Amino acid sequence: MLRTAEAFAAGSGPIAVDAERASGFRYSQRAYLVQLRRAGAGTALIDPIPLRSDLSELSTALDGAEWVLHAANQDLACLAETGLTPSELFDTELAGRLAGLPRVGLGPLVEQMLGLSLEKGHGAADWSRRPLPEDWLVYAALDVEVLVELRDVLAGLLAEQGKLEWAKQEFEAVRTAGPPPPRAEPWRRTSGLHKLRKPRALAIVRALWEARDRLAAERDIAPGRVLPDSAIIEAAASAPASPNELSELPVFRGRSQRRLTGYWFGALRQAAALDPAELPKVAPPADGPPPVGRWPDRDPDAAARLAAARAAVAGVSQERSVPVENLLQPDLLRRLCWSPPADGDVAATLRAGGARPWQVDLLTPLLEPALQARS
């Protein structure tokens, strides 16, 4: 590790950075491989596991340099767990979006901008596996091989379009973003939940989801590999009255699940014992405006404001070749149109909602008249 740190400290220019996790295999989102490349230092593939995920020795060597990542918001958290955090960032995926490029995956971007083809096939692999196969390591090294060159081409394109300052503000927002707040009721993300409309069935989903999450965290296995969502929905819909009935359901009749029948049925029993007042509501707790489809009935003027605002943002999107969602967060636009600022200060409301200065400057003159629309 010391030699790697010395080599990268002696290198020059931006540092290409990537990390491989084991999403879909492990409960944790830790980094199982960290890839680095810098001019004068070459490429380094670092296994953080034997180092107990502590790469703080390397952090000093990388400090002050611009990091180049693709889809940085996917990797910054797991890199921070190892002690690595950038002081400056360039995100090639986000740069591609702001430049209006049609395909912003790393492979398509490299092919379009550099005329090269990257090896495919291991992005969704189980990177917690040891030892890692040699072809996986080659794939991982290629992910950082041309990142800096791609960064230079994209930066030049953004400068030509007058968007480089926009990009810098976006990169800084990604770099400094904190972890997202925990969801109030994460179990409501269970696939297939829409099929259930009774509170008692929802209570079973919640109980099984929470039991699965505890077991997955304890074993460091992805929850879907412990028990698939489809099995949770099936159990909630049928509400088996005994362990034997539960073990006859699809998935639960499998050998690995039969060993856990008592554990899963305990969750069902807890849900069955809840008082009516303890059951979850059919509709999730409201956080923000109602669904847009209800606006014409609930507040026709708000629906008119949203239509006018969306049209204005869509016009800018087409004119500037920037996706609508990158011009302004859709949720912020909805909140603004549902409850316009009483003092009329649209710019302040946008800033308070997390909009960057370039977005505020670009959109405020267009949103102010849109918020005057009436049905």
TrEMBL record:
InterPro entries: 3'-5'_exonuclease_dom, Exo_C, HRDC-like_sf, HRDC_dom, HRDC_dom_sf, RNase_D-like, RNaseH-like_sf, RNaseH_sf. SMART domains: 35EXOc, HRDC. Transmembrane segments: none annotated. Residues 198-278 form the HRDC domain. PROSITE patterns: HRDC. Signal peptide: none annotated. Residues 282-293 have a biased composition (Pro residues). Pfam families: DNA_pol_A_exo1, DNA_pol_A_exoN, HRDC. Residues 279-299 are annotated as: Disordered. PANTHER family: RIBONUCLEASE D (PTHR47649:SF1). This is HRDC domain-containing protein. It comes from Pseudonocardia alaniniphila.
